[in-house]
Protein 1
Amino acid sequence: MTSGACIFCRIIKKEVPARIVFEEDGIVAFEDMNPQAPVHIIIISEKHIEKISDLAGGDSDLAANLMLAAKKIAKKSGVEESGYRLVINCNRDAGQQVFHLHLHLLGGRKFTWPPG
Ligand code: AMP
Ligand code: ZN
């Protein structure tokens, strides 16, 4: 898929509405439209990368900024102390639906392990 047709790229370009909660250092985060927990935020880079397997050596700042955004957003969302889970789905077995690398930040309830 080209970035022009990518739903998350369209959110970044504000062509598709989303509840954006964070924009900093090339990272954008917004509320998931189908939340699986009281807090469910999608965190993406402005750069279109399809999946974590496609990260290259030159993307190390981008990868770090994704993680740093996650911890800031967890604090802002009030789940830093109670706890939260970060998820990256990659390809078919993980059920990746949107091929623009993203972190799910989930919180506000207790999660089980192992995941389903
Ligand atoms: P994944 O299975 O990891 O690819 O997850 C994709 C996530 O993106 C799902 O949780 C969807 O609910 C969410 N999603 C897809 N389209 C949108 C959208 N337009 N706005 C907000 N969240 C979306
Ligand atoms: Zn994209």
Protein 2
Amino acid sequence: MKRVFSGVQPTGNLHIGNYLGALKQFVTLQDDAECIYCVVDMHSITVPQDPKLLKDHIKDIAALYMAVGIDPKKAIIFVQSDVPGHAELNWILTCNAYTGELSRMTQFKQKAQGRESAPAGLFCYPVLMAADILLYDTDIVPVGNDQKQHIELTRDLAIRINNKYGETFVVPEGRFVKSGARVMALDDPTSKMSKSAPNEMSRISLLDEPSKIKKAIMRATTDSEGVIRYDIENKPGVSNLLSIYSAFSGKTVEELEAQYQGQGYGNLKKDLVEVTVNALAPIQERFKEIRYSDELVNVLKDGAERANAIAEPVMKRVKERFGLGL
Ligand code: AQP
């Protein structure tokens, strides 16, 4: 059975980009693979977090994992900082990563932009991500398209260390969805939808009320052509709405183009509001049941134990290869 690992940062409530790009795959994969899903809290502190809010967000994300359909009987759900191997392996990989390759990471460039000085943790973020993945002898990493470069770096690090120290790591592969792999911001369809973007109307969070969903979609940036056609280059706004619609409804973009031929953007947006609200309603219902339950705490405790049991022998092997310890 293949092993799958992925994680989400507790930096705010998950949005439909996180869901369509990553979480939907998490759910499908749990029936055919050994899945490990992490709330990557150590990644989130690469930018400042309010400690009290962070604690809440960790539980929010874990509850959302379960609300979207991840079954803790099938998959391991846990919090990154509960398994010490992540930090330990991170250091070993940091010693084998080059500053040149890290400075080429586009996510770092975007997040560091405009800052006088960026935290070293932000610079090393992709190394910690590599540690998360390699710690579990992972075969497959389901992520959104924005993480392609980080997966490549993970593979490079694994191959580099295997060549230098002998077979140490499984070399993982990224797994990307076709529709929804990169959901763009509603207010600016040239940048990706993000949890931490200042404008609330730029995203649809999984827990948003129908009225907020309506407002964000009806205000979404389009263009003045008035034709419903998928064309990322020239019509990024309309193309983004069509992609979201397609991912939630199961209809292809071509089917949607045909359905809305000759109609204005208003109709497309109105129907997309309905499709989105209906898709999110059962997730929101289930979230309410789980978020403040003992079940959630127990799932995370049990998940950390199960994750540790896989990570410890891997760390033992890695330390052995590097000649660390007694
Ligand atoms: N817009 C997106 N479209 C498709 N997939 C996306 N993902 C993120 N944004 C989109 C995927 O969601 C998973 C979890 O992401 P993350 O929380 O680990 O970090 P991120 O990529 O930095 O996500 P955000 O929402 O942009 O968070 P902030 O604002 O905190 O940086 C990943 O698999 C990611 O590919």
